[in-house]
Amino acid sequence: MLINRRQFLYATGLLTLAPSVSLAEVKNTYYEVLLRHTKWAETQYDATAGRYRRTDFGFAVVLGNAVLLTRGTYDAALAGIEKDLLREHTLATIKHFAASNVLSGGSEWGKTLFWDTTFQSYFVLAARLIWPDLDAATRADVEAIARGQADYTASLGTGNDPRSGSWTPNGSSGGFRGDTKLEEMGVYAQALAPGLAWHGDGPGWREAFGRWSRNEAGLPVADLANPSTVDGVPISANTATNLYDTFIVENHGSFGPHYQSELWRTSGRNAVHFLLAGRPLPEVLLKQPNGELLWRTILATMSDAGEPLMPMVDDREHLYGRDVIPLAFRSTVLRDPMAAWAEAALASRLLAYQAHPPVYRLAKFSGEAKYEPEARAELAISYLLHELRPPVAPVSDFFTRAALAIDHGVEPGLLAHQSAAAWAGTVTKPGFTKFAWQPAHDDWLFKISGTTPMLLPSTAVTSRNAVVYQQIRDGFDGTASLLTFADGFAGTATLPTGTVVCALPRPGRVDVHNLAMEGMPGLTGSRTYTGAAGRVAVKAREQFRVDELTFPAVSARHVRVVGVRPHPTYGYSLFDFEVNDSLARGKPTTASSFDPGFEPAKATDGDPATRWAVARAERGRADSRLAVDLGASVAVSRVRLRWETAAAGAYRVETSADGAAWTAVASYPRPDLSTPGWLDVDGRAGFVARSASPITVEGDTITLPAGIVEGYVRADLRAIAASAAPSGPPSVLAGNADGFLSLFNLSGAPATGTVRLRGNRLYRGTQVTTRDGTEYALDLPAATARVEAPWFTARGIPAGITAVVHNAQRVTFHGGPAMFVLVHRDGRTLPVVLGRAERTVMMPGVQPFPLDDLALGRVTFPNSVLPPGMSDPAAAVDGRQHTAWTPGRDGRMVVDLGAVHSVQVSLKWTNGPVPPHTVTYSVDGKSYGPTTTARYVAVSTGWRPGHASLHSVQVRR
User: Which PROSITE patterns does the record associate with it (predicted)?
Assistant: First the structure.
């Protein structure tokens, strides 16, 4: 039964961070969205040809049609077409394209692995759904497609498809720059699935399907440590590798969560064939080697909309229709409650998303309609997965469980922190530099995708120093980084509260999403900014931007617009450049550059459909120019500029009498708000700037001054801005947001001296109390940053006391006599009586963070697929008192320390006989031996039932 859209949006908690969606509502929502999408799908119908179009595989809409025709309660009003006519269009299309496929004797499409086989998978599935209505010849053609593709793909072995050009999984090893073996090996696997599902096995089919599927997320260090078998084949026989020694893969030259999801995207396409055919799922679809470690990279970038944030990809952001299927597969087939939450969050937003112009579409924010047939097909598959495999119930504390701070490494260029309150990432991949932050995980607050700059200079990072803090080892989650540029330094820090701190060498920029999308939280058509100087509401621009600038009349023959800040992706492009209404029309117009077909004169020809655009090679150039010669000097007082998507973020208008000497007469933007100290952004987030310079709001762009900038999810910004900021040596910037001490050495030399702080907080290290605070002894290596937790406060402590905080448990005081109360961060108290002698005190019942165990919280292998009898090895490095690893018969585990160290290892076992065991070491995760300089530590056992379990692996330098 269809449900009222508004009732659904409220019932599913659309306006909350944790949507509550029943299983029936998710499936029914998918059905309703498919119905509404049919109005777009019918635009692909060619009435002359009597079928849906071939262009961009538009005929793939038949899968959504087939679901609507064979399931649910069809609603012609929502679909915009009567059911019988939709059936007629669908059958005619299937008949034509079944016969025109290369594998059935045609020549129009098919067989080519990239990307015909994706659409063949949809097409075969659509045909099977509507099988009773197909004639015998069409059925035979569909069967020929499934069988023929499986035969062809298996015949390639691990070689390239000669029909696919440069697209290749790079054999069974993968791992070359620019690829994502997840996607490319997945394509080979999905080319085999329809044949296996509908026709059983064929020569080499099952072996090839298993090989490609097992290797999609392959990584040698993990696979070699895993003796488990999947479909009878050892995981250790995998051959695939990544470009990096991590579970991040690369596509489009960067880390993209959309592509990280390919393992479950192709698995969803494959699984539905087996389920619908009534065949058992291949084991590899249920037990995916390294799948959970890959899933962790998605959780570490997830937004409140159930769609991962895309900090380094700008053409896959907000593709809601295409991002459903990985979640649907995990929530139904793998029964993952985290994925069920994310799917519910995404489902609760689909109707509002679909209703936003251009209406009906499901992948609209890519700017290209070519993704629509695919999105429709994958939403249809998601519906079927819910029908065939009802999902598990979602978790209620998603972001608490997803919390993770992780450094993916220098080359991937992402230092990420997912906390319960926000997501943040320091991005240093060339071309994508930014300090991305999404308070409350709000998918539609700040623009962070692709090359969009944020806070940091967008220029190349020449070196980076990064630190990751983890609760299990350090007592809190967070990150700190110090980045070196050709002309200076910048620092970032993320805190467990969701707050971020940035040490800016020059003003930083934040762009805000501002549009009207009814029913979507925050997207009301305007954003409200509040600061000490007042409040302003900035309305959304729903169409191409039009700027009308007036200025005191001047006499000029030449008028030009000079860029200052281009659109971050497309540069500059103008439909119309008007001077005093019509003075520029038809007059000679020149530009610093132009793209063929978009010449300068097209901005002054009076035709609203033509435009000037800078040359592609010049899109990143800031000072591109467009000038018009009016023919004679006239009084000029007004210009009107109608921009395309490539609208200038900033520019100026200049006039000249001779075309040589120019005078600026107007500029854009003119600040909507300029305010000192602090800025609230729409009640959703806020900034505090420790600077004498103001924060400005210009349209949908916030400019923050150089110095320390703090970003808060929700806080009393006025009070925070009024509090005293730390001060220190000239090269050091310091912040004390949320009580944490963030330190940044913005120089190439070590920094020593004193940081002056207000209040009675005590940090790890040495400090001397003053009348109103402390003087913290600084020792910070060149170009580094760190964060210190406020482990203690000293209530009633007098000035002149030296406190040396050794860790979160032990403090040494001297400089008495004095009496005061030491208060731990967790609220425990300890009275201290200090005489003239030095005294060391221990806070009872607390952990002495930071701990020096390198194994704590590290990745362990085996992971996703465990051998029989073995429990998760992570239990030996989780720091908990009552967990332990049960090895299983002759079990072996490996700890990845993340970097090479010279180490000492100690093992703690539970009660009972300790099994025979050895400890070996490896630098590369492939060869193990006795040398203790290692990144990987392996514990091999001769475990049998009755032996003790391993409580902990402790690794120290």
Answer: FA58C_3
Burial of 555 (0-12, 13-18, 19+ CB in 10 A): exposed
pLDDT band at 252 (very low <50, low <70, confident <90, very high): confident
Backbone angles phi, psi at 70, to 5 degrees: -115, -5
Residue 367 sits at φ, ψ, to 5 deg, of 85, -5
**Which whole number is the average pLDDT over 749-768?**
97
Q: How many CB atoms lie within 10 A of CB 459?
A: 13
Instruction: Confirm if 757 and 770 have CB atoms less than 8 A apart.
Output: no
Q: Name the residue among 349, 437, 403 with its Cα closest to residue 686.
A: 437
Which residues does 855 contact at the CB level (< 8 Å), separation at least 6?
Answer: 876, 877, 895, 897, 937, 952, 953, 954, 955
Whole-number Å distance between alpha carbons of 381 and 871: 34
Closest to 118 in 3D by CA, of 68, 80, 170, 167: 167
* Closest C-alpha among 842, 837, 838, 840 to residue 824: 842
3 pLDDT above the threshold of 80? no
Q: Which of 237, 245, 243 is nearest to 221 (CA)?
A: 245
User: What Cα–Cα distance (Å) separates residue 478 from each residue in 108, 416, 499, 847?
Assistant: 55, 9, 10, 18
Is the Cα dihedral 176, 177, 182, 185 positive or negative? Answer: negative
Q: How far is Cα 878 from Cα 52, in angstroms, rounded to an integer?
A: 56
212 DSSP 8-state letter? H
Instruction: State how far the Cα of 246 lies from the Cα of 220, in Å rounded to an integer.
Output: 10
Beta bridge partners of 561: 626, 653
pLDDT of residue 10: 37
In the predicted model, what is the mean pLDDT of residues 235-254?
88
- CA distances from residue 712 to 196, 438, 507, 509, 940 in whole angstroms, order as listed: 53, 10, 18, 16, 47
Question: What torsion do the CA atoms of 724, 726, 729, 731 make, to the nearest 10 degrees?
Answer: -100
Q: Say what the pTM is.
A: 0.91
Q: What span, in angstroms and rounded, lies between the C-alpha atoms of 99 and 144?
A: 10
SS3 of the chain: helix, strand, coil, percent, to 5: 25, 30, 45
Alpha-carbon gap, residue 652 to 645, rounded angstroms: 18
Task: Take residue 648 and report the two structure tokens written for it.
Answer: 């200038």
Return the HEC string of 20-73. Answer: CCCHHHHHHHHHHHHHHHHHHHHHHEECCCCEECCHHHHHHHHHHHHHHHHCCC
Distance CA 237, CA 748 (A): 47
Backbone angles phi, psi at 453, to 5 degrees: -75, 155
**Where is 296: in which H helix or E strand?**
helix 291-299
Longest CA–CA separation in the chain, Å: 100
Q: Is 232 exposed, middle or buried (0-12, 13-18, 19+ CB in 10 A)?
A: exposed
Residues 732 and 780 sit within 8 Å (Cβ to Cβ): yes
- Tell whether the model's pLDDT for residue 16 goes beyond 60: no
Helix H or strand E encompassing 207: helix 205-215
CB atoms < 10 A from the CB of 287, how many? 18
Report the first-to-last Cα separation within the chain, whole angstroms: 63
Instruction: Tell me the torsion sign for CA atoms 219, 220, 226, 228.
Output: positive
CA distance 212 to 499: 42
Tens digit of each residue's pLDDT (9 = 90 or more) over 45-71: 999 999 999 999 999 999 999 999 999
Dihedral (CA of 85, 382, 391, 400) sign: negative
Highest mean pLDDT among 10-14, 575-579, 644-648: 575-579
CA neighbours closer than 13 Å in the CB half-sphere of residue 357: 5
Q: What percent of the chain has pLDDT over 70?
A: 97
